[in-house]
């Protein structure tokens, strides 16, 4: 989708919803590629309820879910230009724009989901949010994107040695290809929609993803060994167009920031529930789950990946700060 077309889509959508939002003085248009009811969509809707309540109806949010305004790359550009007011986006598409966003995308940078929460709720997380300001954006909050782990059709993975020679689909990312190679496996970048048939026909042995995706995609039907190594725990981010933010009073700007922060625990609760539902369905299907695994050899194998991608003093200090976070 071209930028011109996506601008047109956003403008048409804003006209379509205008009559429904006449009660509000300002209606912030927010984009999300996930479907209605997804935890991130529900969290931004909750933020909108808080805004409406705390401003006596002056500020509202209208969430355009299911990629109605375009895919993430398109909507990032629209938000930078102020065509879209708010945007929930994965950190990945920002990696080539804002170097600080690369750090949460590093393999094994987080020891657990709890560790990720402590980091993103602390000084490092604020440093990343602040970095958006140089790119016509205001970073508001981080949401969860789940932890990604390996699954395959051949055997349970109990150690790094068990990965040797296995073929795994990865996202089309040089970093993720290097990660799998460093673990002794073979990386095969391919579109997500091709994974099921590729495992089924033996083109690849497996892939990696979080509980909800492993479940909803049906991959557990053809890859019945799932090892919870949590090599990636990449958060997602809620941003606002700086031009839209600057139009608000200082008081309303703080209300927006606080409402975004207050939506985070709601999102996390919804995400945990969704993960639990998916895990229950997968376990009921008889999938073999490996939960007790020594991650130390996996982490040690990432040294060349970090040497390749963590090159600036700023990024090196961020990694050190994350590793020091207890």
Notable characteristics:
disordered N terminus; 13 helices; 18% strand; 326 residues; alpha/beta; five-stranded mixed sheet; four-stranded mixed sheet; 44% helix
Can you characterise this structure?
- By secondary structure, the chain is of the alpha/beta class.
- Helices cover 44% and strands 18% of the residues.
- The protein has helices spanning 3-18, 39-54, 72-80, 113-120, 123-131, 174-182, 195-200, 211-216, 242-246, 250-284, 296-300, 303-309, 313-324; strands spanning 26-31, 59-64, 86-90, 137-143, 148-152, 167-170, 186-189, 206-209, 225-232, 236-241, 288-290.
- The strands form 3 sheets. It has a 5-stranded mixed sheet. The protein has a 4-stranded mixed sheet with strand order 8-5-9-11.
- α2 (39-54) links the parallel β1 (26-31) and β2.
- The radius of gyration is 20 Å and the shape is globular.
- The chain starts with a helix and ends with a helix.
Question: Going across the major beta sheet, what is the strand order?
Answer: 2-1-3-10-4
Number of strands: 11
How much helical structure, as a percent, in the residues? Answer: 40-55%
**SSE order, as H and E?**
HEHEHEHHEEEHEHEHEEHHEHHH
Number of helices: 13
Q: List the uncertain runs.
A: 1-21
> Largest sheet at a glance?
5 strands, mixed
Question: What structural category do the secondary elements indicate?
Answer: alpha/beta
If you compute it from the alpha carbons, what radius of gyration comes out, rounded to the nearest whole angstrom? 20 Å
| Average residue pLDDT | 91
Shape descriptor: globular
In terms of DSSP E residues, the strand content is 15-25%
Distance between the termini: 43 Å
């Amino acid at each position: 989708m071209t930028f011109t077309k996506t601008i047109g889509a956003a403008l048409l959508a804003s006209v379509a919803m205008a009559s429904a939002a006449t009660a509000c003085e300002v209606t912030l248009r927010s984009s999300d590629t996930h479907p209605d009811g997804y935890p991130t969509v529900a969290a931004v809707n909750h933020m909108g309820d808080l805004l409406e309540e705390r401003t006596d109806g002056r500020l509202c949010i209208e969430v355009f879910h299911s990629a109605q305004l375009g895919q993430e790359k398109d909507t990032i550009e629209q938000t930078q230009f102020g065509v879209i007011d708010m945007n929930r986006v994965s950190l990945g598409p920002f990696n080539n724009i804002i170097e600080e966003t690369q750090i949460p995308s590093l393999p094994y940078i987080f020891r657990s989901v709890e560790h990720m929460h402590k980091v993103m709720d602390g000084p490092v997380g604020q440093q990343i949010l602040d970095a958006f300001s140089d790119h016509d954006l205001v970073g508001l909050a981080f949401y969860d994107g789940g932890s990604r782990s390996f699954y395959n059709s051949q055997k349970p993975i109990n150690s790094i040695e068990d990965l040797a020679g296995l073929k795994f689909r990865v996202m089309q990312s040089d970093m993720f290809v290097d990660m799998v190679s460093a673990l002794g496996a073979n990386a095969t970048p391919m579109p997500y929609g091709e994974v099921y048939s590729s495992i089924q026909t033996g083109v690849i042995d497996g892939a990696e993803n979080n509980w909800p995706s492993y479940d909803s995609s049906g991959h557990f039907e053809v890859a019945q060994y799932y090892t919870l190594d949590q090599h990636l725990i990449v958060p997602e981010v809620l941003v606002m167009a700086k031009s839209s933010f600057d139009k608000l009073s200082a008081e309303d700007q703080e209300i927006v920031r606080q409402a975004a922060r207050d939506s985070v625990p709601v999102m996390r609760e919804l995400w945990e529930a969704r993960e639990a539902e998916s895990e229950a369905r997968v376990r009921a299907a008889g999938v073999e789950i490996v939960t007790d695994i020594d991650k130390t050899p996996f982490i040690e194998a990432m040294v060349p990946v970090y040497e390749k991608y963590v090159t600036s003093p700023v990024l090196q200090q961020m990694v050190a700060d994350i590793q020091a976070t207890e």
